[in-house]
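<purpose> Linking amino acid order to shape
<body> The protein record starts here
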Amino acid sequence: MLLYYIFSLSTLILSVVVLIYSIKTITRFKLEFRILTNVTLNVLNKSTTIERNLNFEINQSDQVQAHVYLRPSTRFSGTENSIDPIFSPTQHSILYIDQSTLGFAQHNSGVDITQEGINILFSGLYFIYSNVNFNPNTTWSSTYFTYQTWFQYVRRHSANNPVLSGVLLRTVHTTCDNCTNSQETAYTGGVFYLQTGDLIQVCVSGQGLVDFGPEQTYLGLFLLQS
């Protein structure tokens, strides 16, 4: 009889030990499962955030762009009745944006177009390009010009950080001595980081030097990466 009680007690103790071990195992499994679930959710949330940010950058890059035609600016002071081409040793001629045809062959989105240039609304890495057709509005030989070398400049004016203002791109054309029909297509382009508030302009080194056909003289840019 004593042996029976001893056997029963041993069985009970063993059952209790097995039960305690099972409870600990289940508890540890629940904890590990909860940790694994939290890690998985964090990874999924980060992936969703990265994908959302990437899609935003892609969509924003698609939307920020401009292609505009250029036209002559106002004459240098005191040269209203002078014969082209006209040069000034102290200033360049800013080419204005032709706003009369915006929305047709010209287009822009995500930037602000003014007469003076393209205003940047979103900071980022941009590709900027410009084309100018040098074709002086005169029948005079270039021998009589003040300068036979002409320049095109793509310039940034940074209102928020003036130290960044200056020339970004430049092209140079030198005409022959006795040319009466000197023409040159000057294209330039490059990648630059622009900031909100920057103004992009095109200038040339004289007035009466450029043919302003829409397919010949223009300025454009588009956002590569924000």
Remarks:
- The longest strand covers residues 124-134.
- The CA atoms of residues 87 and 206 lie 5 Å apart.
- The chain has a mean pLDDT of 77.
